[in-house]
Amino acid sequence: MFNGRIANALTPTIGALAFIFLWWFIAWLKLVDPILLPSPQASAKAIWDGFVGGNLMKDLLITIRRTLMAFGIAVAICVPLGLILGSSVRVYRSLEFVIDFFRSTPASALFPLFLVILGVGESTKIAVAAFGAGLLILFNTAYGVMNARKTRQAAARVMGASPMRVMMGVTLLESLPQTFVGMRSGVSFSLVIVIVAEMFIGSTDGLGQRVINAQMIFNMPEMYATIFAAGVLGYGLNLIFIVIERRFIHWGGK
Amino acid sequence: MNAPLDVPAGKLLRPAPGTHITIRGLTKSFAGQPLYSGFDLDIPKGQITSIFGPNGCGKSTMINMVAGLLPMDGGEALFDGKTLADTVIGYVFQNYRDALFPWKRAIDNIKYPLRIAGKSRGEADARADELVKSFDIRFDLNRYPYELSGGQQQLVSIMRSLAVHPEVLFLDEPFSALDYEMTLFMRDKLQDIFEATRTTMILVSHDLDEAVYLADQVLMLTRRPTRIAEVVRFDAPRPRHPETLTSDAFIRAKAQCLEVFQREVRVRDTSIGA
């Protein structure tokens, strides 16, 4: 039984260990040019050096800050907007095409437009990321509201709750599981956009700028270290959302 | 005596003595098909009225309109002469899972209508305690609804609907999603509540045994466009118990209902061709 428990605990790590082993094996056999594919040890050392001696941490924090700012703006605007749109099917239907169109437009294609409007700076990166994330949050919230079970709203109404109270006390909560789906995709999406923006839009800091700089001077361990940091950030943001979801939306799917 | 002829017929009907809810000229159609047209009904005060009829005759639609959940196309429903807005009502939904708030604990679900009605936290707590005592609840109301069994959830729904001391309690097939054992238990629970409070109750049921067993009168409806086929009285003394189901009075009332029901269903079936 004890062995079984250890085996269960180790199962999720098998894939990661196999991946690292394969990487090490390929690097050891020198199947790929060592300059392009350094060994796992060299990359691990670059991560360590980056965090301890270098400014990997600083760049990581800057990217986190931009991502969260974009996400925060998107949530503040699009959750209330989604609630309003979703509560009137007619209003939503009339705007559905516009929302779907811009949601399907690659947000990266809007960089030039935002550059013209906001100039080269912090605000452009955040604005494009907020725009893309916002649409994801908007339509998920609206769908959550539209698909909310009508019985609970009816129950609140029959008890004499005002329309505002039904909206805030029932519809909002009822749509929350779907809203969270939108927020989770939204935060991942703003990370993608922020990293791309850091690479190409006159940045002097952030993970995206660090990756592209490392690549330009062929500092491969540094590049892999930064990619790894970006991966941990993306995974971590997703994980935080799942934990919050389980904790606060305990009724999801029930 | 000599009422002018141009007054709509519904307006002339005086409610019968002891009437609580007067429905006059109720009109409703779906997709151009009339469901109710100029429907009049008096529902007596302090009694249980069961509503029974063929599928699709609009039993739930009627109580939903009277309870204000569905707009009427025409007509009105008054409660002792008051409008719905001035009346405290309770409503128990068939699907308790979709009617309770899963984000609130069971006890907070029960307090919710009290908070809506503007009661203080203390008053709501006191009333909830009172309900817990009178229902003799043995399970933990600090759980979330989805952690409770179906019967427990519907019990919470009923407590929630009673929290505000409703003048009228609407029940839309409240026990149809429960297993038989739980259904029997809940019928008797409902009967206890009725005897203790004498609240006017309107029960939609698709189980004729249940409709008769609980009722003072069974309202038999026709196929659409819906009219009242007959009102069958059932005056067996309360409390009624499982033996009531085999008593002569019960069997007579049920046989009468069944006869009316079959007559109403057959009207259509013979035309289909037997």
What would your notes on this structure say?
The complex is a heterodimer of chains A (254) and B (274). Chain A is built from eleven helices and no strands. Chain A has helices spanning 2-10, 14-29, 40-52, 56-87, 89-104, 111-118, 122-146, 150-158, 163-200, 207-216, 220-248. The two termini of chain A are 33 Å apart. The model of chain A has no long low-confidence stretch (mean pLDDT 90). Chain B is α/β, with parallel strands linked by helices. Chain B folds into two domains: 14-87 and 167-265, P-loop containing nucleotide triphosphate hydrolases (Rossmann fold, 3-Layer(aba) Sandwich); 96-165, no CATH class. Helices cover 38% and strands 22% of the residues of chain B. Chain B has helices spanning 9-12, 59-66, 96-99, 106-116, 121-135, 150-162, 180-197, 208-214, 248-272; strands at 19-30, 33-44, 48-52, 74-79, 89-92, 168-172, 200-204, 217-221, 228-233. In chain B, helix 4 (106-116) packs across helix 5, helix 4 runs parallel beside helix 6 and helix 8 (208-214) packs across helix 9 (248-272). The chains are: A mainly alpha (254), B alpha/beta (274).
